[in-house]
Structure formats: C-alpha cells, structure tokens
Specification:
This protein is mainly α. It is built from one helix and no strands.
C-alpha cells in the first residue's frame, strides 16, 4: 500500500512539473510575441516620424535649390547684359595709367 501511494505521489509531482514546464514555455512564447509586436509598433512609429521629417527637409532642399538656380540665372543675365561694358571699363582703367601723388605725400616745391 505504501508503494502504491508513493507511485501516485510521483505521478502527481511529474504532472505538476510538466504543467509548470509547459506554463514557462507558454509564458516565454507569449512574451516573445509581445516583444515582436512592440518592436513592430515602434518601428512603424519611427518610419512615420522619419517620413514626416525627411519630407520637410526635401521640400526645403528643393526650395533652396530653386532659389539658387534663379539667382544664378539672374547673375548670368546681368553678366550677359553688362559683361562687355565691365570688361571694357577694366581694360580702360588698367591701360590708361595716370599717376597721381596722394594728398598726404608732400610734393617738393608745391608748398
């Protein structure tokens, strides 16, 4: 009679161990699912955040590029319109030398 009770007790303990082991595995599996869900949720939030903030930068870059291009066109237009006059004026000033004594230098015989 004692052996039978001992075997019954061992069976109960074994079932309890198996049940506990199964619960631990289930808990791990559930925790892993929750972690994956949380990771996916945060990744989606990050993608949304990045998309919102990157698109603003792209628009700013496009606007800046457009403004720069307009300014370059204006400079080229001014260069085309007045370029030859500027070159002529520079050549005239460089080739038509008129030496003059500055006012702060004393000229002998002029005082």
């Amino acid at each position: 009679m004692g052996r039978k009770a001992e075997r019954e007790a061992q069976k109960i303990v074994q079932k309890a161990r198996e049940y506990r082991s199964k619960r631990v595995k289930d808990a791990r599996s559930e925790a892993q699912k929750e972690i994956e869900h949380y990771r996916k949720e945060k990744e989606e939030e990050f993608q949304k955040f990045e998309k919102e903030h990157t698109s603003g930068n792209k628009k700013a870059e496009e606007d800046a590029s457009k403004d720069a291009e307009e300014q370059v066109k204006a400079i080229r237009s001014a260069g085309d319109k007045h370029g030859q006059k500027v070159v002529d004026d520079l050549l005239r000033v460089v080739t038509d030398v008129r030496p003059e004594v500055p006012d702060r230098v004393a000229v002998p015989g002029k005082a």
